[in-house]
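Lecture 7 notes: from sequence to structure.

We start with a single chain of 185 residues. Read the sequence below before looking at the structure.
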Amino acid sequence: MTGARRGANDPQRRERILDAAIEVIADHGVQRTTHRRIADAASVPLGSVTYYFDGLADLLAQAFRRFSERKASLYRDSLERAVDRRAACEAVAELICGIDYVGSREMVVIWEMHAHANHDERVAEINLAWLRRSHESLALHFSPEACRAIDALIEGWSMHQQFERRPLDRALVVATIEAVADRLR
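Now the structure, written as tokens:
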């Protein structure tokens, strides 16, 4: 077990449990995520995990919601900072090529979330909400058609980068995003 256990007056316990659940999912996958592993990772008594959540399915759904909302906020922030379409293309390239948006452990969590959505309606809704937020963020600079295509590029290239285990050609990524944006105005 990592870290010291916190006392009963621990206002951040619930959030630590959610964050620990994401770590356990990254390490073991949804299928091997248990209350006990989450409690150990959060350094809380096992009873805390069952106190705050209505079962493991509820805990997983809330953890995926927290994870996706954090990622959606980073996504939105980067596109809001873009002053024009060119800067927006660069921001999207940074989402794809950079390490601040999604690292390799986070990619595992995203894949686990997508796969688990096939078996849990709440997680499917979380995925759909994330997709909508991504499109809304991209819509600050791109047409609806371009939003859909660029979002698919973000997902796909991130996946390829993970599997290939090497950096992407940023110039190619930017050129492709610009071509899609120009073609789908």
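Confidence is low (pLDDT under 50) at residues 1-7. Keep this in mind for problem set 3.
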